[in-house]
Amino acid sequence: MSKFQSFVFLLLLSSFWFSCKKVDIKFGEQFLDNGYTQIMKIDTFNADLSTIRLDSFTTSSSGGTLLGTYTDPYFGKITSQCYSEMIPPFYEGPYTNTFFDSICLIMLPNREFYGDSSQPVQVNVHKVTQIINGYEANPMQIFNVRSFPVDPVPLGSASVFVRPLRRDSIKVRLSDAFGIELLNKLGDPNDKDMRAPDAFIKYFNGIRVSTSNNGNFAFGCKDSLFIRLYYKQSQLFLNSKKYDIGISAKFHHYNQITVDRAGSALQNLDNNRELHSSQTGNAAYTSYVGGAIARVRFNSIRDVLKIPNYAKLLRATLVVKPLRGSYSPSFALPPLLRMATTNVNNQIGFDIFFVNNGSAFTQYGNLTLDYLYGENTNYFYDVTDYVGSLVKDPSLSNPGLLMLPPSPAMETSFNRLAVGNRLNNNGKTELILVYAAVK
Question: Which residues partner with 360 through β-bridges?
């Protein structure tokens, strides 16, 4: 063999050797089209869905009042009423030469509502007959399942039209006898109840505000409700005056929320810690006030390592598609929806975030709405770091991510979410991966 032929043979042999070996590439922020790498996209990895039961949650100090009853096809019959401790203002007497006019409860809507607002709502106010307090382990918290006894005879009732978007005040006329009693106590120089908050709370434990339970409408108000006593005082002239009794400590103002799931899509959730989406119409559901949270898991995510020539995960995007027909302007989606890590006990952990200029910010999905066709209603999340950690470390547990609004909106909003699994043609939750492959 000549020297030239030997050189050609060695050149061909070395070319064959390098063509069969994956090139060791350092992946940075950019990929160069060097003939060895490909950027691939795949959306066939399953986003496994289930619905988690929420037994109870804190509603004190939430910043809002929820009232009403409505029946939801997904969550069942949801009823909310509020309890509130009240205290008088600083005493500024004297209250002499006074004449009673009227007394009422005043509430201010906060634009939260669900259902049919075209019908009047019966609002009932009852006197609580036991001091409102928290649990011994944590006196600053009161949960949605807590209740206190009330006087069966209402302090007042009224049939009112609630216009939540106009924020018109809601007024419920209370018993004249109650108002006269308060005014007489104010005018009594020996009365202690109206001069010290602790004494007043023992005298008047608080109120429960509720609605008739046969409606299909619920609404929210600010946690600034108050009882207003109107009276006249004879001085040089007969002057009209008012006396306001407001909320005491905000942690003694809370919403009692009950759910009857009979006949709903989640009717079996009461007897189960969670329900897989295959048991609930190929869908999962979130309504914090409805006691349910949708969870997504990526059970097969490490199968990405079995893809031929797989080299590195570049991006993972979670696309959450609410079911078509499950939402409308009157039955709204959460405008902000976070993905929170969880554990085997389904406790809420850290939010999935993004980093901008060195600071971390929670991702809320950047909701886009398509009321006409429903095809382009989506939430989007960059879950690259979360998914990447699951791919890299087989020892990590994979309890999933919880879909829920931020606090305190989740405790004070009726907005809810229904999302489909990969078998649901009305909306599929997808995990889209972009990865680098070596040719």
Answer: 355
pLDDT value for 17: 37
| Residue where the block lists tokens 């006593």 | 229
Q: What is the dihedral of CA 62, 114, 206, 212, to 10 degrees?
A: -160
Report d(CA 159, CA 113) in Å as an integer.
17
Alpha carbon of 133 to those of 141, 206, 239, 384: distances in Å?
9, 11, 39, 45
Gap between the Cα atoms of 29 and 299, Å rounded: 28
Q: Give the strands of the sheet with 401-404, arranged side by side.
A: 274-276, 48-53, 292-297, 401-404, 338-341
Beta strands in 73-140 (DSSP E): 76-84, 86-87, 98-107, 109-115, 121-127
Beta bridge partners of 68: 80, 218
Q: Is the peptide bond before 408 cis (omega within 30 degrees of 0)?
A: yes
pLDDT tens, residue by residue, 220-273: 998 889 999 999 998 878 899 999 999 988 889 999 999 999 999 999 999 999
Alpha-carbon distance of 384 to 213, in angstroms, equals 46
Per-position b or e across 384-420, b if 16+ CB within 10 A of its CB: bebbbebbeeeeeeebbbbbbbeeebbbbbbbbbbbb
